[in-house]
Amino acid sequence: MQQGWGRYRATLVGVLEEATKRKNHHHHHVRRTWRYYHNSSEQVLSLKTELRRLFKLVHPDLFHNSPNEQATNQRSFQLLQEYLDVAKGKESPQRPSYHFEFYIKEYEATSNKRVELFLPPPQIRHHPQRGKELSPLTKVALGRLLSACGLSSEVSGHLEGSENNMNLFEFFQHASEIQRQSEASLLNLEQQVRVVKSALQVGRRITILFRRPLSDASCQEQLQVLENLARAVDEIQRVELAGCVLIIGDGYGVDDGGNVWLNCEDDARSWAKYLGEVNWTNVSSCQSAAKARRLKEFQVAQLLEVEMIFADDSLVKKLEYLFFLDQLADNAIKNGAVGSGKFYELPIRVTSPSIESDIPNTENKSSNKNAQLAIDENMGYISVSVVESPLNLHKFIEEHGEEALKVRRRFKLLEKQMEDLKAHVRKHLRLRHLAFDETLKSDQLQSACMRLLRNARLLQKHTEGLGICISAEHHLPLPGSKGLVYLKWDFSLTNL
After folding, report:
1. Do 207 and 245 meet the contact criterion of CB atoms below 8 Å apart?
2. Segment (H or E) for 115
3. CA 181, CA 166: separation in Å to the nearest integer?
4. Out of 204, 279, 310, 374, which could bridge 383 as a Cys pair, Cβ 3.0 to 4.6 Å?
5. Alpha carbons within 13 A on the beta-carbon side of 485
6. Residue 4 and residue 113: Cα distance in Å, rounded?
7. Which helix (H) or strand (E) holds 134?
8. Residue 222's CB: how many other CB atoms inside 10 A?
């Protein structure tokens, strides 16, 4: 009897425990579902509000005085209605991509703002409880459309935040769709960018370079910037620009190489004003000085029989650096090549004494007593202060050159291994391009590459033809450009 009661009691306890677990699980499921519906409903309401604002912003009736712009908005307005019907599940997608071109009314400007965007077909998810719902890919696409038209950054940012809810396969799928559509639409734009650059090169002998953020922008934006530059150049025909290099980036100035920088966010009038005020005699002097300095560095490196000689940015234009190079040349002529030429793989970096030769960290440097000479423990170059005597540099390399060579060769070997690993990953994932973020450590890059290789069979069909940069963050390529997909180095296959 006691044994029977023991068995019954054990069974009863198990039943009660299982019932308690199910009750708790039910409450947890209800709370989680309520949170989802609460957040989802807020998102849907915000999206509807912003779409209504978009309709008012681009409605064709606003452009009755501009027939071409009215016709363009009418076509895209109808296309947007079709896109939303597909997104709601009322229709099936009938086209491989959606090309939107809108004009936004600019009442205080002489012309209306033009917006162009390619979106992949909307996708619907079927949830067992919630039914049909927008996929993260479609939320991201709508967020980009709203953002491109200048609407609520809060809503579009929230929608684009859906990227973080995608799994890796959806992320690659969306990135591939963006790049595929871009390649189909960008050929003519890329040709136009090259034509404008060539026209400025041939007609005015001006070389144009792009730097961030413009280098990461779409071809449409780059073309607009070049057209603004052409207008600016036409306004200042009295200024002789032949032979100059214009770098369009994030600010103004003339760098050590005599390159003139322009802020990509300003207009043609601002550029014309700045270019008209530049001291072009000084620019020409900077270019000549930079060319002479590079030639001298090359010649001194040959005399010493080292790989190269270079200086910190804060030092290159100073006379004391040129004087130091002359001293090195005289010492090499007098005493011969350092180490009888066996240190031809070593670079020499010349630093300013004001920052203690840029050697604040003893963990990464091996230096002498006065910290004017050191070996960089990462790249293996010799660091020397510009106030150090060439004779002391000669002696330091003689004594510590072998140690520096070991570091340098280890660095070169690691570089080659990383390049081989990059080629291996590209081949197995069939990538168009693979880049590494320079801010990441080699072990982080290796970790990401090995994870990609381990899952190559699963990823191949999603990554073929993509350009990927292993980075510190996730970021989809910009629609309208051939930008890279930024993949966070510690990515997960299941969730970004």
Report:
1. yes
2. strand 113-119
3. 20
4. 374
5. 27
6. 84
7. strand 131-134
8. 24
User: What are phi and psi for residue 470, nearest 5 degrees?
Assistant: -75, 120
Looking from the CA of 50 toward its CB, the CA atoms found within 13 Å total: 25
Tens digit of pLDDT for each residue in 329-342?
998 898 888 888 88
Q: Cα separation of 67 and 490, whole Å?
A: 52
Q: Under a CB-based contact definition with an 8 Å cutoff, are residues 136 and 163 in contact?
A: yes
* β partners of residue 383: 349, 374
Instruction: Inform me whether the pLDDT recorded for 315 exceeds 60.
Output: yes
The answer to whether the CB of 401 falls within 8 A of the CB of 338 is yes
Tens of pLDDT, residues 250-301:
889 888 888 999 998 888 889 999 998 998 888 888 888 889 999 999 999 9
- Contact yes or no for 149/102 (Cβ under 8 A): yes
User: What pLDDT band is residue 464 in, cutting at 50, 70 and 90?
Assistant: confident
Neighbours of 47 (CB within 10 A): 20
3-state helix, strand, coil in the chain (%, to 5): 60, 15, 25
Q: Which residue has the tokens 């026209």?
A: 199
Cβ–Cβ contacts within 10 Å for residue 208, how many? 19
Give the C-alpha separation, 312 to 293, whole Å: 13
DSSP state of 376: E
- Share of residues in the chain with pLDDT > 70 (%): 71
Which residues are CB-neighbours of 294 under 8 A, at least 6 positions away? none
Residue 62: pLDDT over 70? yes
End-to-end Cα spacing for the chain: 59
The pTM for the full model equals: 0.56
Bigger pLDDT: 212 or 422? 422
Residues with Cβ within 8 Å of 28's Cβ and at least 6 positions away in sequence, in order, are none
Residue among 64, 98, 61 at smallest CA distance from 81: 98
Looking at residue 303, its pLDDT comes to 92
Q: How far apart are CA 112 and CA 193, in angstroms?
A: 22
Place of tokens 């940012």: 157
| pLDDT of 126 over the 60 cut | no
Cα angle at 114 between 478 and 89, to 5 degrees? 65
Q: Which helix (H) or strand (E) holds 75?
A: helix 67-87
Cβ-proximal residues to 227 (8 Å cutoff; 6+ apart), any chain: 196
Distance from C-alpha of 219 to C-alpha of 56, rounded to nearest angstrom: 28
Which ranges constitute the DSSP H helices of 153-279?
Answer: 153-160, 168-204, 219-235, 268-277
Rounded CA separation 275/277 (Å): 5
Coil, helix or strand for 253?
strand
